[in-house]
């Protein structure tokens, strides 16, 4: 999970957002079990919400707000290097999770 935390900080997302910790946990879960990407709303967000005592909807909303602020500040200038391609639109929370989890999987050799 430390790698996910470092990557989220590296791309410039500030840790004062509630969604920051949620995003780190989502990345970790997806790295552990990629099937979470097939049921993000019903499974992944709910699991992360249980850790923090909030609903899956709260997890999604907090990450959506964080991504909106991030995109307005940076656009794809930093994510371009991570994603390996230009992002013309703000990524959804699920897209960002997948991009970051894939990057970590490629660069840490942790594939499952």
Write the layout of secondary structure elements.
Layout: H1 2-10, H2 18-32, H3 40-52, H4 56-74, H5 79-83, H6 93-108
Helix pairs in contact: 1-6, 2-3, 2-4, 2-6, 3-4
Properties at a glance:
0% strand; mainly alpha; 69% helix
Care to describe what's here?
This protein has 112 residues and is mainly α. It contains six helices and no strands. It has helices at 2-10, 18-32, 40-52, 56-74, 79-83, 93-108. Helix 2 crosses helix 3 (40-52), helix 2 crosses helix 6 and helix 3 crosses helix 4. The longest helix has 19 residues, at 56-74. It is globular.
User: How many beta strands in the DSSP annotation?
Assistant: 0
Let me know the average pLDDT: 90
Name the structural class: mainly alpha
* Largest sheet data: none
Taken in chain order, the helices and strands follow as HHHHHH
Poorly predicted sequence stretches spanning 5 or more consecutive residues: none
Short description:
The protein is an all-alpha fold. Helix content is 69%, strand content 0%.
């Amino acid at each position: 999970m430390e790698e996910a935390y470092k990557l989220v900080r590296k791309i410039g997302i500030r840790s004062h957002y509630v969604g920051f910790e949620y995003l780190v946990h989502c990345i970790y879960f997806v790295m552990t079990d990629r099937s979470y990407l097939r049921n993000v709303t019903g499974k992944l967000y709910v699991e992360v919400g249980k850790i923090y005592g909030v609903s899956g909807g709260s997890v999604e909303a907090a990450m959506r707000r964080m991504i909106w602020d991030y995109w307005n500040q940076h656009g794809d200038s930093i994510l371009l290097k991570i994603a390996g391609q230009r992002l013309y639109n703000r990524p959804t929370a699920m897209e960002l999770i997948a991009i970051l989890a894939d990057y970590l999987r490629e660069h840490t050799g942790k594939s499952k």
